[in-house]
Give the backbone structure.
Amino acid sequence: MDCEAIQSSFSACWQRFLACFKKPSEDKGQRRRGDRPETGAVSGPVESANPNDLRPLPPLPVEKAADHYTALYDYSARTEEDLSFNTGDTLEVLDKSNGDWWYAEALTGISASKRGYIPANYVAPVESIDAEPWYFPETKRLDAEKMLLAGGNQQGAFLVRNCESQKGELSLSVLDSGRVKHYKLKKLDNGHYFVSRTRTFQTLKELVGHYSRHSDGLCVRLGEPCKKMEAPQTHGLSYNTVDQWEIDRKSIKLLKKLGAGQFGEVFEGIWNETTAVAVKTLKPGTMDPDDFLREAQIMKRLRHPKLIQLYAVCTMEEPIYIITELMKNGSLLDYLRKEGSTLRISDQIEMAAQVASGMAYLELQNYIHRDLAARNVLVGENNICKVADFGLARVFMKENENVYEAKEGAKLPVKWTAPEAINQNKFTIKSDVWSFGILLYEIMTFGQMPYPALTNYQVVQKIPQGYRMSCPPGCPKVMYEIMIDCWKENEQDRPTFETLQWKLEDYFDLDVTSYDDANRY
Ligand code: ATP
């Protein structure tokens, strides 16, 4: 065999060997044109019918459609290596090996024929149901109503979502004369969809197409898909900050002070001249950077739509910066105090349900917050609430144990803290549930100080004797019962966050819905 032949057989063998370790799903994304920096992925198909045949293989036909994605949201490039695009643009994904950020070429739109990184959660395969502008699978009934009623939607605006009460089924939510109506989309055994049995459709797209042309028994003819409220958070700030946790302090500019807590100030800032962020600056000496970084690694893994995302840190010099997503309306406590008069009971319960949802995720991850309170929940647009400062309390508590113990009254948020945490330093997810009960009180009183007539000292004295706050004025009995459940003396008798979440979410389902024809609910 001459040298070239040996080389080519070796290369084919090597490619087959590598192919054994490739997940089938990676295949499509990694079949690429080959001009970007090497990632260790194999370019080109390598399977052969005869394992002894070592001749170089002809390329397989490229599965074009599978590599093509539709943008679900607008995205503005944040670095020179990523791509800007608008909703509806088509992108060819060339490499998915970087996890949450894919390398792609824009085929249409403002970046047509340019290549760069894109956030993977901003796109869906072309022609797939996920790429349909009316498909909002993870949207709850209540959120659907909120989104459809928000400004910008006209009569007939609609969306299709997963049905909450029956797993695996879909619902159609439609805006009609300022109200949202919901229909079940049922499926026959042959997979066809229908709203009314008299007319069935092979695909959802056909169903939507039909009712967009005629109302045919629906309350109104389907109009434009519901406007998407907010693009989701990207995972990390950009493709190279996902694993690179520490970022250059110079890439952050502080713009405006948003507030101050006991450990430092918080600013609105801009990263890389492109991306709005919140920057928490920690007073020098507040904590050991190594301890903080260790905790931050855990916090970074915690990702949930109802938890503030930690983007990056600057710990090389003091003050330490903690960079997180920016929430336009600041803390829930300030928001409740400012906007109280405009909030309806359904808004209050919905905000509580969102906090419970974020906490249910922490519960599932065996993580404890330790400082749950309205001041540590942040509010974005449309009353979106996210739990903040999870993990920090743990670092502060550990590092400043003496401070906490010595100056109990001053440092420990006594009125939010469960008795076993105050008396035996026993912090568990159940002590978080106690704090959640207090947070519910804050929500239902539009940000009143808990136990308004008592000092911290009196609270510590009275709680073990069975004293509990009474039902706030105007607070539904069911909500007060939930608070009381959270304040059970024996922590095992307190509900889980999972239960709290569904109880709060179900509050509306019972409240608003009633069947008024065969399939509308
Ligand atoms: P503590 O230090 O006792 O926990 P705190 O939670 O009020 O008190 P910080 O977390 O430092 O203190 O926040 C201070 C204020 O800064 C908040 O009340 C809020 O108004 C604002 N803030 C904090 N984080 C953000 C953010 N990600 N987006 C917008 N505003 C924020």
Summary: Residues 345-364 form the longest helix (20 residues). The chain has 16 helices and 17 strands. The longest strand covers residues 252-261.
